[in-house]
Design a protein that fits this description.
- It catalyses: NADPH + 2 O2 = 2 superoxide + NADP(+) + H(+).
- Its main location: membrane.
- By secondary structure, the protein is an alpha/beta fold.
- It has 19 helices and 14 strands.
- The protein has helices spanning 3-19, 26-35, 41-47, 50-83, 89-96, 121-128, 130-147, 151-156, 158-165, 168-178, 189-194, 197-200, 225-248, 316-326, 366-380, 404-419, 437-445, 468-478, 492-505; strands spanning 185-187, 218-220, 251-259, 263-270, 280-284, 294-297, 307-312, 338-343, 355-361, 390-397, 426-432, 462-463, 483-489, 514-519.
- The strands form 4 sheets. A 6-stranded parallel β-sheet has the order 12-11-10-9-13-14, with helices on both faces.
- The protein is elongated.
- The model has no long low-confidence stretch (mean pLDDT 84).
Length: 522
């Protein structure tokens, strides 16, 4: 009776295993994003939620695996009881059927072992049959993959997350093999025509003796999982092939700069490399690890003849990379670097909006560095395609040193806008969320200075966190009939706040201000 509880989750598992690999095929998503460039922004935004979708599918796989496993454990227990004659005569008769070519019989109950103790039969079956053994392997692999994907492990021990996630190869291999054990069996079509189960179920003693009830014949159903997963597996193999080809392409260092707050800037060059604003690349340094790839948003503009990334010390891999770069002689080329990408993100759409709000937290400012640089070039070249007429930029940092590497870019933007008489085009606000008493005293002494004591910019630094209600209300008043794109690269907690504010301050009248929320996802 637990068979439907095993079979239904198995069907759901097949469907979800078909989907699980597709959201992590980065090149496929970039291709789709480019194809949807003229579609609605809602369609493109769904592609930016690929990792969220990946996680939801994984949760469903975990849930269905649990239900499927429990149901089959109950089935095995009841199969064993039937074998011992615990239930009615029908279940006993069906369980006694064996594969015997001489008697022309086939088995229905998969527990065919008779030479061990009855209590040991279920355990023996689980660890010796194809279905049982692959089921154990699949379940163990899934448990390791899911537990190592927890936020605390992924953030603190990325290598553990990375290596255990590659157990998916074992998971899929076991999944394809799992069904060929033919544990779930059914009456053959020919036997069903000759042996009517509704007529013969209460006449087990007459099976094979009367023409109406010949001995029923059974067969295993075909393995179906590979029907579902073969397509995504081929797509994923092509994805890995493309990544390998990109990895083999030569990458040269243009410049290596160590910025304040232990931030490493790498300026790289690669043949035929083309990017757009806000895009990201995956970097691999074989000197640290042959297998690990880490995502970094590019801080350069498409108009530049190189691409750059800013890397903050945030784990073992980044610490090792920074340590290697610091030990290099001045002007030397760094270690071999593999580059995969570029890949599209929500920030690519920033110039599709008349008004944009850019919110960065800490190193999360990197995609907006690319955007602001590109704007500078567009104004310099008098680009007629630039639709954006107003940008609001917010940067939240815990420490003063974090502002230093980005302040030069903002100074250049300030001067450029003033020279062109467009001082109102860019409104930026920097928020310092952490400071000590010495810093507070220094600010109080220099409060009358024309430029900010932290950044040297004309716009003074704000202390504490932004009042988002006030900021959104101000943007709405200044742009009463505009579509405003709100872009965030920062923590999930801030994303929830901004998403709610976008909904709160969007007018129901389509002719008035409308806010659209976009978030970077890695």
């Amino acid at each position: 009776s637990a068979l439907p509880w095993a079979r239904a989750p198995a069907a759901v598992l097949n469907f979800n295993c078909m989907l699980i690999l597709l959201p992590v095929c980065r090149n496929l998503l970039s291709l789709l994003r480019g194809s949807f460039v003229r579609c609605s922004r809602t369609m493109r935004k769904q592609l930016d939620k690929n990792l969220t979708f990946h996680k939801l599918v994984a949760y469903m796989i975990a849930l269905m695996t649990a239900v499927h496993t429990v149901a089959h454990l109950l089935n095995v227990e009841w199969f064993n009881n039937s074998r011992q004659g615990v239930y009615d005569s029908l279940s006993t008769a069906l369980s006694n059927l064996e594969d015997d070519p001489d008697d022309k019989t086939t088995f229905l109950n998969p527990l065919q072992i008779t030479d061990i103790k009855p209590q040991q039969i279920p355990t023996h079956f689980v660890f010796t049959s194809i279905a049982g053994l692959t089921g154990v392997i699949i379940t163990l692999a899934l448990i390791l993959i899911i537990t190592s994907s927890m936020e605390v492990i992924r953030r603190s021990y990325f290598e553990v997350f990375w290596y255990t996630h590659h157990l998916f190869v074992i998971f899929f291999a076991g999944l394809v093999i799992h069904g060929i054990g033919y544990v779930v069996r059914r009456q053959t079509k020919k036997s069903f025509e000759e042996h009517n189960p509704f007529f013969c179920q209460n006449r087990t003693e007459d099976w094979g003796r009367i023409p109406e009830c010949p001995i029923p014949q059974f067969e295993g159903g075909p393995a179906q999982t590979w029907w579902y997963v073969i397509g995504p597996m081929i797509i994923y193999l092509c994805e890995r092939l493309v990544r390998f080809i990109r990895y083999m392409q030569n990458v040269q260092y243009r410049k290596i700069v160590m910025r304040p707050s232990k931030v490493l800037e790498l300026q790289l060059m690669k043949k035929s490399f083309k990017m757009d604003v806000g895009q990201y690349v995956f970097l691999n340094c074989p000197a640290i690890s042959q297998l690990e790839w880490h995502p970094f948003t590019m801080t350069s503009a498409p108009e530049e003849d190189f691409f750059s990334v800013h890397i903050r010390s945030a784990g073992d891999w980044t610490d090792k990379l920074i340590d290697i770069m610091q030990k290099l002689p001045e002007g030397a080329q760094g270690p071999k670097m593999g580059v995969d990408g570029p890949f599209g993100t929500a920030s690519e759409d920033v110039f599709d909006y008349e008004v944009s709000m850019l919110v960065g937290a800490g190193i999360g400012v990197t995609p907006f560095a690319s955007i602001l640089k590109s704007i500078w070039y567009k104004f310099k070249d008098n680009d007629p395609k630039l639709r954006t007429r107003k940008i609001y930029f917010y940067w939240l940092c815990r420490e003063t040193h974090a502002f230093e590497w980005f302040a030069d870019l903002l100074k250049a933007q300030e001067n450029e806008m003033e020279e062109r008489g467009m001082g109102d085009f860019l409104t930026y606000k920097l928020f310092l969320t952490g400071w000590d008493q010495n810093h507070a005293n220094y600010v109080m002494v220099n409060v009358e200075r024309d430029t900010d004591v932290v950044t040297g910019l004309k716009q003074k630094t704000h202390y504490g966190r932004p009042n988002w209600d006030k900021e959104f209300e101000e943007v709405r008043k200044e742009n009463p009939t505009s579509v405003v794109g709100t872009f965030l690269c920062g923590p999930e907690a801030l994303a929830k706040v901004l998403e709610k504010k976008c909904a709160k301050y969007s007018d129901v009248d389509p002719r008035k201000t409308k806010f659209y929320f976009n978030k970077e996802n890695f």
